[in-house]
Structures are given as C-alpha cells and as structure tokens.
Write the structure tokens for this entry.
Amino acid sequence: MDISVIIPLYNEEESLPILFDWIKRVMHENNFTYEVIFVDDGSFDNSWGVIETLKEKFPDIVRALKFRHNYGKSPALYCGFQVAKGDVVITMDADLQDSPDEIPELYSMIKNDGYDLVSGWKKKRHDSKLTKNLPSKLYNATARKVTGLKLHDMNCGLKSYKNEVVKNIEVYGDMHRYIPYLAKNAGYTKIGEKVVEHRKRQYGSTKFGMNRFVNGYLDLMTAWFLAKFGKKPMHLFGLIGSLMFLIGFVMVVVVGANKLIALWSHAAAPLVTNSPYFYIALVAMILGTQLFLTGFVAEIIARNSSERNKYQIEKKI
C-alpha cells in the first residue's frame, strides 16, 4: 500500500464528508493505493455516525478508531500510527485547513527524495495575528533553538513520514507538537519542510486555546530533558548538586576561616550565625545534597526501566 492518511478529529461532522471526497479524488488522480484512518477523539456530535456511513460505502479504504472520551491529539496519532500500513504515512487535521492536494508532493519527498519526515509550513496563515500568528512565531523560534531543527512550523498537522518512523517513535501527552524532534532523537535525521496551503476553517470552532503555548513550552523542556538526560539523569542532577554543595562548602570554610583569624589575632570574633554567608552556604549545601540524591534516585528508576536498553538498529546482517 502506498499511503496511509491519518486524521485525528474531535467534533468535525460537517467537514468529514468533504475532506474524504477530496482525499479520494487526489488519490485516484495519482493512482495511489491508500487507506484513510479516522481517529475519533471522543466526539459528542455525529462524527462517528458520518465515519460509519463512509465505512459502509468504502469498506476497503476507510478504517476508524473511536476513543471513549477526549484523550487528546497525541494519543490519537499514536493509535493511528500503530495500525497504519502504508509505505508513507500522511497526517492532517479534519477541519479542512489542510489541503489534500499537498499529498502527492509530500509522498514524493519521502519516496523519491529520501526524506524520513517532511513537515508542512503554513507560510501564509489566515489566523488572527495577535492570538495565533505572533505566539506561533515565538514558539517556533524557541523550538528551533532548543531542538536544532530548522523548521518554521513544527506544530503543523500536515506531515508525511516513512512508515518505519511512525513505528519507532512514541507520541504521548501533548508531544505531537514535537514529532520531528522525537524522530530526530530516534535517529531519523533527514527531516525536510514543505510550504503548504493554509485554508480558513469552514465549520465549527478551533479546539485549541492560548494555554497551548504555555503547555507547548513545558512540553518542549520535557522533550529536551528526556533526549539529553532521560537515560542518565545523574549527569544533570548530580553535576548541579555537586557544584551547589561545593559552593556552599567553600563559603562555610571562608566564614569559619574569618572566625579563626579573628580569634588568632585576639580581635573581637564575630558570631558565625551573624554572617549572611553562613545561611546562604547552608541552603546551598542542603539543596546540593537534595539534587544529588534526586539524581541518584532517578538513576535507580532509569536502571529498572524497561526502556533502558531500547536502541534504534538501522541495519543487521
């Protein structure tokens, strides 16, 4: 099979028939063999009824999963990835803001140009500049700096992947925003970008608020930490803890030395507890010890993790 199209959705009953007909037309024009996988993320409208109707009409093309309640986009993509059979996997949103006309070129960039993953770039957007465009630019600039991936729109829902990529990454929480970074950390480094059309939403309302930018930043820090220190947490906590303890210890020595020098010279010796440096040193040593122990406990947890010896093997002979 050439292509699997995965469409996560939540309350998009009006858009689904239009989107499916559009995908079907593009696929037939290019003679692709394909499947369309709908993942209903706990919709409470008639989205599932629309999907069931499509399944009855096109049983060999349509596949679908329905969650019992709204888990989020990352779980929807993860479950879609698990069942995808196509050589190339395409993801797109169900709100008609992504154009299926982009599919042939996205497919070609994977099959003919050798990319592992191609991310869409909605260069010209139809969103509000104040509430979406500007925050999106800041978010993507931060993501580029942290991940090292020179992508302009990392969170674009329209992407294409080699099948083996989606089978070897784990999308969880809200990590769908950083799938290219997850792929890079899994060893898939040929990651490209394609300018795609961004269309205005025709039906319903957006499912994302301003809190996604705050959550996105926190998820970015999580992704970075797991990539750098997920298997060796002591390298971070142990280093910072040791440095803090050392700084506190040196300050205690300095305070104690000043006391001894005053006593040696028969001068009025100040109380150690009168020096603010004593309390700063005490806090630094306590925090340093706690951070070191945190790293030690994290190492024990990592050592007993089922993922501790999971590595990506590219070839075997």
Q: What stands out?
A: The chain is about 50% helix and 10% strand. The radius of gyration is 27 Å. The first helix runs from residue 15 to 29. Residues 109 and 234 are 41 Å apart (CA to CA).
